[in-house]
Amino acid sequence: MLQHQESMGAAAFALTDAARLLRSEIDRSVMESGIELTPGAIRTLLLIQQFDGVRQSVLAERMGVEPMTVTAYLDRLEARGLIERRVDPADRRAKVVTVTAQTEEVFQAVRPLLAKAYERAMSGIEPMARSVIETSLERMRHNLSDA
Questions:
Q1: PANTHER family under this entry (predicted)?
Q2: Please, which residues have CB within 8 angstroms of residue 14's CB and are 6 or more apart in sequence?
């Protein structure tokens, strides 16, 4: 049993460390690319695109940052015409956020950077193992997001 617990701890540490390193790789690539957005702003845009019409509060929760941090990102993104904030029809006190058509230009610049970082992270891992990793990580995210 102890060996199993040590294995779980090692796996959790490896997953956390790999995520940190991948994020650093992406952040470095973005900073070197000349894209005039911070890595945090790009992460914000990607999440808004994924969860179109997301509330600002939910966005902060999904990003694991304070609402004030998200508000600062959103202010800058809105000033550049990359997002729109609207009153949530279900709750007039809340705002929902959507990307604009101008965001596609940013995504076209970012996609190759993400693909390169992903390929570096997955280098030497066979296609079948990649599939297992991707499916397993999606399951883990699902399991933990339900908690």
A1: TRANSCRIPTIONAL REGULATOR SLYA (PTHR33164:SF64), TRANSCRIPTIONAL REGULATOR, MARR FAMILY (PTHR33164)
A2: none
